[in-house]
């Protein structure tokens, strides 16, 4: 479906992003997908350090490709007065300013929230941090893994023997998603009131929110949720089980599901009301017995046959894919979820954003080269070709 000009949700919104790594870029990339103009301010020479994490995508970094399509790269030296002035002029014409620099760094550069909103009451400023604006950890560096450790995420992730972080940066992503929803809410409120907003989102707070279940179990039942690998600490059977030719994950959510599993799939009706297995709480108490019993039954099936039998009985189950399985997944292919986006190294495959509007497809713009849009943006700010050449010669822009 071609974009219908003017119908993208954020058409006409301008965002200036002083961002790096994952947390802020994932928020602003979704804003770009929804039609906003996102101007990404990058360092002269280096740019967002995520550009150099790897070279997996035809020489480009996979994180950067994932998180920065549809943005404009404005490369400027923020240590220079001219560079800072250019960014301030950009912000003056923007609807949203997003930054995830180190604590107080934005203020030291002249981009503090109070100063910006004193000049532009309608501006929405979203500040993203590791641990928030106060507290004993405020000044600490806050990479995703560190926040997962500090919040206790790793205490409930992994196997009984080994705590692990998640395979993707969930603390970064959680913070980015809360920033995104906050910015959208602030834009909606501004439509009614004309007033902007100051938004503060921390990785620590976002991850804490996601840990509500294990946190309340500890607070009120004094129970530390155990690490259960692929299993579930509070539900049984919920794990990977063997078949003749592979493994399948089965997740029985309630006692009705247990009865369906043992009667309709395993043909073992005597297990439905067994005094040790009839309820989920009983099955959790006898986890090892239940898992062994289920595994004994699943080994009688091929993977394909069991997958179909579980589906026919309405039992939640899933194949255990790797990334190759995801890339080739029929759920993506048959729903036409893949698109091509441009970059300086050619066309790159990307999956459509999760937000699916019936009347318009989200915009999936090109991945910007470092400083690709600098001259054009400076021209919009009123700089002449000679001005731009002088700034480049002085190292102010790149």
From TrEMBL:
Q: Which keywords describe this protein according to UniProt?
A: Transferase
Pfam families assigned to the protein according to its UniProt record, in alphabetical order: CoA_transf_3
Statement: the UniProt record of this protein carries the keyword RNA-binding:
no
Name the source's superkingdom: Bacteria
UniProt keyword Heme present:
no
**Which range is the signal sequence, renumbered to this chain?**
none
Q: Record's InterPro entries?
A: CoA-transferase_III_domain (IPR050483), CoA-Trfase_fam_III (IPR003673), CoA-Trfase_III_dom3_sf (IPR044855), CoA-Trfase_III_dom_1_sf (IPR023606)
Gene Ontology molecular-function annotations? transferase activity
What protein name is recorded for this chain? CoA transferase
Annotated source species: Rhodococcus tibetensis
């Amino acid at each position: 479906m071609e974009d219908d000009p003017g119908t993208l949700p954020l058409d006409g919104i301008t965002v200036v992003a002083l961002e790096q790594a994952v947390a802020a870029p994932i928020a602003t990339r979704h804003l770009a997908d929804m039609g906003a103009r996102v101007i990404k301010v990058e360092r002269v020479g280096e740019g967002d350090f995520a550009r150099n994490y790897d070279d997996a995508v035809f020489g480009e970094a996979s994180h950067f490709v994932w998180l920065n399509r549809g943005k404009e790269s404005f490369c400027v030296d923020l240590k220079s007065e001219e560079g800072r002035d250019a960014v301030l002029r950009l912000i003056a014409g923007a609807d949203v300013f997003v930054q995830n620099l180190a604590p107080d760094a934005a203020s030291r550069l002249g981009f503090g929230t109070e100063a910006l909103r004193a000049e532009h009451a309608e501006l929405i400023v979203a500040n993203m941090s590791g641990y928030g604006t106060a507290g004993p950890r405020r000044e600490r560096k806050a990479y995703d893994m560190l926040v997962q450790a500090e919040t206790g995420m790793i205490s409930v992730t992994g196997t009984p023997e080994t705590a692990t972080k998640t395979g993707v940066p969930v603390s970064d992503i959680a913070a980015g998603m809360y920033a995104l929803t906050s910015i959208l809410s602030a834009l909606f409120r501004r439509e009614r009131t004309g007033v902007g907003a100051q938004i503060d989102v921390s990785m620590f707070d976002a991850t804490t929110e996601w840990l509500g279940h294990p946190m309340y179990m500890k607070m009120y039942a004094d129970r530390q949720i155990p690490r259960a690998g692929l299993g579930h600490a509070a539900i049984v059977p919920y794990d990977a089980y063997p078949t003749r030719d592979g493994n399948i994950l089965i997740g029985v959510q309630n006692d009705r599901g247990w009865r369906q599993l043992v009667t309709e799939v395993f043909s073992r009706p005597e297990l439905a009301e067994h005094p040790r297995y009839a309820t989920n709480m009983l099955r959790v108490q006898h986890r090892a017995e239940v898992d062994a019993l289920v595994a004994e039954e699943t080994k009688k099936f091929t993977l394909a046959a069991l997958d179909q039998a579980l589906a026919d009985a309405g039992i939640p189950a899933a194949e255990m894919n790797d990334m190759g399985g995801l890339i080739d997944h029929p759920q993506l292919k048959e729903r036409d979820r893949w698109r091509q986006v441009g970059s300086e190294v050619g066309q790159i495959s990307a999956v459509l954003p999760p937000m699916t509007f019936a009347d318009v497809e989200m915009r999936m713009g090109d991945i910007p080269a470092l400083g690709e849009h600098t001259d054009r943006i400076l021209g919009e700010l009123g700089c002449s070709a000679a001005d731009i050449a002088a700034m480049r010669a002085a190292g102010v822009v790149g």
